[in-house]
Amino acid sequence: MSIGSIFGIIISSIFINNIIFAKFLGCCPFMGVSKKIDASLGMGMAVTFVITIASGVTWLVYWFILEPMGLAYLQTIAFILIIASLVQFVEMAIQKTSPSLYKALGVFLPLITTNCAVLGVAIINIQANYNFIETLINGFSVAVGFSLALILLAGIRERIEYSAIPKAFQGIPIAFLTASLLAMAFMGFSGMKI
């Protein structure tokens, strides 16, 4: 594992194979939470923490329990249980150790359980045959890419809110148009060779 391969994983996960704009995973929270930058920052922090930890835990479970026992076909069910348990554990730990952070994250932590991006990253890490360090780096980088997309859309939506938009495009329609333009902008990174 060289610095070049680590750098490649980071750039690829954030820009080239962005979980939202290239893989289309996590679109529900992307459209639902991206109305305000503050909410997007909170969701981004929570998702970054959970995806990074879930990537490591699911990698360990897959390679040290499921694969050796011939139970690899149960990975999806096992990963869902791990992610749900992890989110509950993280929620309890944050509530106990940092009530202010718990209050700031609010409903975002339970919502992460249903975010398909978390499960998608765990499965992508196994399919890519990453080692443990690469899995953690990829998980963190994917979460940073998710947060970047969320914050970009939130910033644009906040500015659009004060613009004169035709009635037919107000609300979700303009959000979808904006998201599609962002996706097209991120497509420009697809030609990069790392």
From TrEMBL:
Keywords recorded for this protein, A-Z: Cell membrane, Electron transport, Membrane, Translocase, Transmembrane, Transmembrane helix, Transport
A GO cellular component annotation here is: plasma membrane
**Keyword Signal in annotation:** no
Group of enzyme by EC? translocase
| Residue ranges crossing the lipid bilayer per the database entry | 6-31, 43-65, 71-90, 102-124, 136-156, 168-189
**Gene Ontology BP, a term:** electron transport chain
What is the protein's major site of localization? Answer: membrane
Q: What domain of life does the native source organism fall in?
A: Bacteria
Q: Which InterPro entries match?
A: Ion_transpt_RnfA/RsxA (IPR011293), NqrDE/RnfAE (IPR003667), NqrDE/RnfAE_oxidrdctase (IPR050133)
Q: Name one Pfam family in it.
A: Rnf-Nqr
- Keyword set includes Secreted: no
Topology of the protein relative to the lipid bilayer: Multi-pass membrane protein
Fill in the subunit field for this protein.
The complex is composed of six subunits: RnfA, RnfB, RnfC, RnfD, RnfE and RnfG.
Describe the family membership recorded for this protein in Swiss-Prot or TrEMBL. Answer: Belongs to the NqrDE/RnfAE family.
Function according to Swiss-Prot or TrEMBL: Part of a membrane-bound complex that couples electron transfer with translocation of ions across the membrane.
User: Which HAMAP family did the record assign?
Assistant: RsxA_RnfA (MF_00459)
Tell me what this protein is called. Answer: Ion-translocating oxidoreductase complex subunit A
Organism equals Fusobacterium necrophorum BL
Gene this protein is translated from: rnfA
